[in-house]
Design a protein that fits this description.
Elements (H helix, E strand, L loop, with lengths): L5 E4 L5 H8 L3 E4 L8 H8 L4 E4 L6 H5 L6 E4 L6 H9 L3 E3 L4 H21 L2 H9 L8 H5 L9 E5 L3 H8 L7 E5 L5 H5 L3 E2 L2 H7 L2 E4 L11 H6 L5 E4 L8 H10 L4 E4 L10 H5 L3 E3 L8 H19 L22
Parallel strand pairs: 1-2, 1-3, 3-4, 4-5, 6-7, 6-9, 7-8, 9-10, 10-11, 11-12
């Protein structure tokens, strides 16, 4: 084969990664952030030697139309076994950034803390108050914007997975009491002094409740759960939108059953319940738990480097199907 190899990037990647790919290959990089229609993806990927994808669903039928592809660098490859199986059958290497989930866990845990503080201290309301010129005296906030503190309060973790544990590790600086709900006891949380309790006990005790539960959880929190919480409680959900009945949450915020909420995921995402959009005591984030500049750039550079490794005849890091052999260098462009 003559000429430079071709790489198709199916969704926006930080520019340093694109620049790295262009040192070795001709690159067709989609600048948008939405998943391309299947037909467009296929048309643009034809003749490519490598693909850089985000969460595109590539199956055996599609890969059969792309016989020149030698490597797929997938941002979320570890979560798509169908992609790995289809690529393996066709002798295509699939790679993914090795530390992908570690920094996502850290980013989401940081966002949870940000939402707890922002919602508890009424940042959105305070910002609007200041911008409207209502701060006629520094005592105004002590009368009109009293919020909820954290020191000495109780933090309730619904879910003791990696994110729940990461949140708990960050609680020491706030001198908070920890309680958690999970089907399985967590040795790490127990070592931090947390108590494993039933959900009803957590709801009655917690000043802050954070939700980090599996994807198949539906309406774990509804009207009865919000009614069981303290009227001063702050509720945060960054895990699964469908785990919360948004209408019930909006009603709890409007009636004062709970004090405030912070959300990064939604029941019918990307749509958000109109009552939540109108509620002054909820912080709404646009699914931004992993929106970290340096980490996203590092992941993209890792993807680009894995493509260059294969094009130069080297076995890349982060291979998800190690049984696939690297094609001989002479078979590469």
């Amino acid at each position: 084969m003559t000429g430079r190899p071709r790489v198709f990037v199916s969704r926006h990647l930080p520019e340093p990664a694109i620049e790295l790919l262009r040192t070795r290959a001709d690159v067709d990089a989609e600048p948008g952030y939405l998943t391309l229609p299947r037909a467009e993806f296929l048309e643009r990927a034809r003749g490519a030697d490598a693909l850089c994808i985000y969460a595109d669903r590539l199956d055996d039928e599609l890969l059969a139309e792309l016989p020149t592809v030698k490597v797929i660098a997938a941002h979320w490859g570890q979560w798509d076994p169908g992609l790995v199986e289809a690529a393996t059958r066709r002798g295509i290497l699939v790679t993914t950034p090795a530390d992908q989930y570690r920094w996502i866990v850290s980013g989401v845990a940081e966002l949870i803390w940000g939402l707890m503080i922002a919602a508890g201290r009424r940042f959105a309301e305070a910002d609007a108050f200041a911008r409207a010129g209502r701060m006629d005296d520094h005592e105004a906030s002590n009368k009109l914007l009293l919020g909820e503190g954290m020191s000495g309060r109780t933090l309730g973790l619904v879910g003791a997975g990696q994110i729940g544990r990461a949140v708990a590790r960050r609680a020491a600086g706030f001198e908070m009491t920890l309680v958690y709900v999970d089907p399985v006891a967590s040795a790490e949380l127990d070592a931090l002094g947390a108590r494993r309790v039933e959900l009803a006990e957590l709801l009655a005790e917690a000043d802050y409740v954070t939700l980090s539960v599996p994807e198949d959880t539906v309406h774990l929190f509804g009207a009865p759960e919000f009614a069981a919480m303290k009227s001063t409680a702050v509720f945060v959900n960054t895990g699964r939108g469908r785990a919360v009945d948004e209408a019930a949450l909006a009603d709890a915020l409007a009636t004062g059953s709970i004090a405030a909420a912070g959300l990064d995921v939604y029941e019918n995402e990307p749509d958000i319940h109109p009552a939540l959009l109108a509620a002054p005591n909820v912080i709404l984030m646009p699914h931004a738990g992993g929106a970290l500049r340096a980490e996203r750039t590092r992941a993209a550079l890792t993807m680009a480097q894995s493509v260059l490794d294969v094009l130069d005849g080297r076995r890349p890091d982060g291979v998800l199907n190690p049984d696939v052999d690297l094609r001989p260098t002479e078979d590469l462009p």
